[in-house]
Task: structure prediction
Amino acid sequence: MIAPGRTGPDFAAVAGVPAPGAALPRACASSAAITFSAKRASPLRRCIVTAGASMSSRPMEYAFAKGSSFRSSAFSESTNSSGAPAGCDDCIASGFADTQTDDPLRQFMDVDFATQLPDDLLLLTDKMSMAVSLECRVPLLDQRLVELAASMPGHLKVRGGELKYILKRALEGVLPASILHREKRGFGAPMGAWLRAELAPVLRDVLSRESIVRRGLFDPAAVERTIREHEQQRADRTDHLLSLINLEIWCRLYLDGESASGVADHLKQALAA
Result:
């Protein structure tokens, strides 16, 4: 939980930050000078910061920026380019259609609230933390803080290429600059490195050409190319490969009718090979 009286007054104190194009007060100079490295950011984040007016007319192109090249080539002829059976509605497209604002940044936030947060980030965090009896909290999702952030205009959230602008301003003097302005870091396990080393035998076994051909969902050449790019560190394909591995294991359990113990024994054998 956010300490009572801490967040509200701080945000209120900087809520009068001038609109884009206005001169910033001297106190803002150090914060405004923070530059945004578009090269290192994800495609979607680059789009949010650099797209400008054009983003409002093409939200779907930006929403699918990440991984689009993989999606467009990996699936077999029986599935469409999104990986869903032909005719299946897309939840991201539906999310954009349901937004009640013309503000592109707010559109992205609304879609995140409806999709990635409940169905991915929060879900996985809750499952994995509770699996080891760990109490995990998400203070930035405190209801009052979320409502306050949702009421703020976009130029207080992204300013001159700097993300989380108003949050950083509010915490100046509370957190050291080395923390406040460092690059974003996640809390994920080093799965990418494991897939190149300890788990490489499992990766190659589960996603073997024989397995992909037998399943009939994906183009074997595209899967092999994805594995090779990851192994050679030409691209980080961790998310793609984990999704493919989990899907194949799920298919073996629920479509092929294999027992959980049998699948586990097979994976152990592959790991020991």
